[in-house]
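Good morning,

Attaching, inline, the backbone tokens for the sequence recovery test we're adding to the shared suite. The designed sequence is right after.
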């Protein structure tokens, strides 16, 4: 149960949107006329309270910037904005070059579907499908979407093991990838439902960079945090075949006892989820920076 991914990839994309972000903003900026202006400007692509609009599909690159009016998701995101998502540890196995492996420098790490390894291997991580979307918001600018920012996301497999680190997985890089935020600040990944290992509540790691260029260089990190998965979804998924190890481990660490989410119960990191183990799950989380 001791492995964690850390992808560091330079796709060689030659544009840098250089978004300089301040992590402080007065509440009045949001509550006053600035909120209305931000609402009209923001149009994230998730809808309703059930998470994203549907499972992410494969492919590279972000979605095209949206031009429609505010969706229920962006309205909700703005209403909740004002509290930055907590900074968290990247863990012992980030794969970003900070402690050994560096997947961010690998050609192919910029991708939406992260279920398989890329490069020298094409091993696919098995499990229940999961599509998750992060909505990146700039707290210093009335919660406007962070268009052009980049997210590196990684998580363990259904047995709680991390590519690049766990024994036998040193030459695999599945369940790691980078995506660029679209015009609505959305970053979406298609993956498999992570497993549970002793000492941790099921989660997904992510690092936010100012741009793809900054992600490739492993610099200008705006936020390091984690997404917590909903208990009901975990219980249903871990009851299915292939998740036997996670089914044993899950009851051993309650959310309130988790060494990352336990201080506040993951109130700002608990994903909104919908779906089923039979058809797959979607998850969404507002990431205010």
């Amino acid at each position: 149960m001791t492995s964690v991914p850390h992808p560091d990839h330079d796709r060689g994309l030659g544009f840098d949107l250089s978004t300089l972000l301040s992590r402080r903003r007065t509440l009045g900026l949001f509550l006053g006329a600035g909120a209305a202006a931000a609402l009209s400007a923001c149009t994230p692509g998730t809808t309703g309270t059930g998470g994203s609009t549907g499972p992410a599909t494969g492919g590279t690159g972000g979605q095209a910037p949206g031009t429609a009016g505010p969706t229920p998701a962006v309205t909700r995101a703005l209403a909740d904005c004002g509290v930055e998502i907590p900074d968290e540890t990247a863990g012992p196995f980030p794969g970003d070059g900070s402690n050994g492996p560096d997947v961010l420098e690998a050609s192919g790490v910029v991708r939406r579907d992260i279920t398989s390894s890329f490069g020298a291997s094409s091993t696919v991580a098995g499990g229940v499908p999961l599509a998750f979307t992060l909505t990146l918001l700039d707290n210093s600018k009335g919660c406007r979407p962070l268009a052009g920012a980049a997210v590196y996301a990684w998580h363990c497999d259904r047995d709680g093991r991390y590519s690049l680190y766990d024994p036998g997985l040193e030459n695999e890089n599945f369940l790691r990838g980078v995506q660029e935020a679209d015009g609505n600040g959305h970053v979406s990944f298609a993956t498999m439902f992570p497993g549970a290992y002793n000492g941790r509540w099921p989660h997904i790691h992510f690092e936010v960079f100012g741009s793809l260029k900054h992600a490739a260089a492993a610099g200008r990190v705006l936020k390091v945090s984690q997404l917590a998965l909903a208990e009901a979804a975990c219980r249903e998924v871990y009851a299915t075949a292939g998740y036997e190890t996670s089914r044993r481990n899950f009851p051993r660490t309650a959310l309130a006892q988790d060494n990352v989410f336990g201080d506040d119960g993951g109130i700002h990191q608990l994903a909104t989820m919908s779906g089923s183990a039979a058809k797959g799950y979607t998850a969404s989380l507002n990431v205010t920076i």
